[in-house]
Write a structure and sequence with these properties.
single chain, 138 residues, mainly alpha
Length: 138
């Protein structure tokens, strides 16, 4: 709405700012969820690839030496996939509590972000263990 002089009312500016803020928050949620999906896929695929690699090494003489690197890396990949998977539930709790403006809703946001960061660290650490194992053993 505008007044007689053609200047927009203050309520229009407030509505525009609110709509812009809402769109920004929705975009952040979408980016975060896509990142979480990527981390689940990355860690899960790495765990499957590690199992296939171990199967290929079973009959070789290097298997016992590489096994000490493979099991920790496999564990890290599985933990990373699990952390990214449960981050969805904490993100849901954050959105639900922020909608109802619960007092501690920001705690849920930090938990979900923390889980995603830990998942990324687990993927990196698992990959590092594999590289170290390949370098040392093979």
């Amino acid at each position: 709405m505008s007044n007689d002089s053609g200047i927009p009312d203050a309520s229009q500016g407030q509505q525009f700012a609110h709509d812009r803020h809402t769109h920004f928050i929705e975009s952040l949620h979408k980016i975060k969820l896509e990142g979480a999906k990527g981390l689940v896929t990355l860690n899960g695929s790495a765990a499957i690839a590690m199992l296939a690699f171990l199967q290929a090494l079973v009959d070789r003489s290097t298997f016992p030496a590489f096994k000490s690197f493979a099991l920790p890396s496999l564990s890290l990949f599985l933990i990373g996939a699990f952390l990214a998977g449960i981050a969805f539930f904490f993100q849901y709790a954050y959105v639900l509590h922020s909608f109802y403006e619960s007092p501690g809703f920001k705690v849920w946001r930090w938990i979900s972000w923390g889980l995603l960061v830990l998942s990324a660290v687990a993927a990196f650490a698992g990959g590092s263990v594999v590289v170290a194992g390949v370098h040392c053993v093979l």
